[in-house]
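Team,

Forwarding the record for the chain on the shared tracking sheet. I've put the sequence and predicted structure together so nobody has to dig through attachments.
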Amino acid sequence: MAAFIDEFMKTYGPEVTRQMSASFDLDQDTVQKLIPQLAPLILGGLKRQKDDRGGDARVDHILNKYGDQSVLDNIRDLMASKASASSVDANLGGLLGSMGGVQAAQVLGKSMNIDASKIMKMIPALAPLILGALTRRRDTGGGGISGIGSLLDANGDGSIIDDVAGFLIKGTASQGKGKGILGSLLGGMLGTK
């Protein structure tokens, strides 16, 4: 999972950061720190769908329905559209559970001193890009849908808890030894360091 997020940030991160910054009126440094905090939520939601609702076939269905690769070629218009939307679904139609996106936005908003309502709009702005990148990887990366399924369960044991918590606590490979913001909060609540 961390390798995919690092790859996403290297390939699309600069443009996503610029466009999110402009569309959501946040500085680029803040957005660049926020994207790797939100991506595991989306990937974790896909993993839960895979585990609870039909395996790789369910993920394939979601990518076929919502993983349009063309959004990766027009990030500016996607961000502008999502930023100006009057109605937002931070929970991504249940992909993040009934309140997962809202709760994450509140925690991140408080810890990063950002209006949580902006983050609630950023989640559905980032999701199509993550899904589009996964679809592109599925279709061109050689691993197909089983490769995406393996990516979603990075250590292969079938548990999203340790994968997402480990990612959030340790951060991505490019973040080095630093903790992710949600990871620091989770670590404090769970007594891990």
